[in-house]
Amino acid sequence: MSYNYETIPLLLGQTFKKIENCDDRLISFKNNTKEIHMYHSQNCCESVTVEDITGDLEDLVGSPILRAEERNEDGKSSYGLALYTFYELATIKGSVTIRWLGESNGYYGVSVSVRDVS
């Protein structure tokens, strides 16, 4: 098992007006000037989905994001390889952990992207 931590500068310090769990493959963060998506572009022979959200996404609305961290954990699955990606986001109102699960035979990437799509 390996762990990797890193800060997500694109989210850190932002104040969002709306955060949506659009489906099991897309989380959307919006304010007046930015729209940031957390997602994975699917390929064949792999699966990447939002497995769980702990906390209330509304706690991230209307206050600056004070902590935005990504942590990865390797594992095994019926596909072969699994990658759990945890996004821990916090404001003064509370914190949320978004857990993604990516499974693949090892050939395809299963990482989650955080991109400004404004």
Present the secondary structure layout.
Blueprint: E1 3-7, E2 18-23, E3 26-30, E4 35-39, E5 46-54, E6 67-76, E7 81-91, E8 94-104, E9 113-116
Antiparallel strand pairs: 1-6, 2-3, 3-4, 4-9, 5-8, 6-7, 7-8
Describe the structure.
The chain starts with a strand and ends with a strand. The radius of gyration is 14 Å and the shape is elongated. It has one domain. It is built from no helices and 9 strands. The chain has 118 residues and is mostly beta strands. β7 (81-91) and β8 form a beta hairpin. A 5-stranded antiparallel β-sheet has the order 1-6-7-8-5, with no helix packed on it. The protein has a 4-stranded antiparallel β-sheet with strand order 2-3-4-9, with no helix packed on it. It has strands at 3-7, 18-23, 26-30, 35-39, 46-54, 67-76, 81-91, 94-104, 113-116.
Characteristic key phrases:
mainly beta, four-stranded antiparallel sheet, five-stranded antiparallel sheet
Brief write-up:
This protein has 118 residues and is mainly beta. Helices cover 0% and strands 56% of the residues.
Task: Give the uncertain stretches in residue-range form.
Answer: none
> Any idea how many domains?
1
Radius of gyration: 14 Å
β-strand number: 9
SSE-based structural type: mainly beta
Q: What is the CA–CA distance across the termini? A: 36 Å
The total of helices stands at 0
Instruction: Determine the fraction of residues in helical runs and give it as a percent range.
Output: under 10%
Largest sheet, in brief, is: 5 strands, antiparallel
Give, in order, the helices and strands.
EEEEEEEEE
Average residue pLDDT:
87
Share of residues in strands: over 45%
> Which strands sit side by side, in order, in the main sheet?
1-6-7-8-5
Globally, the shape reads elongated
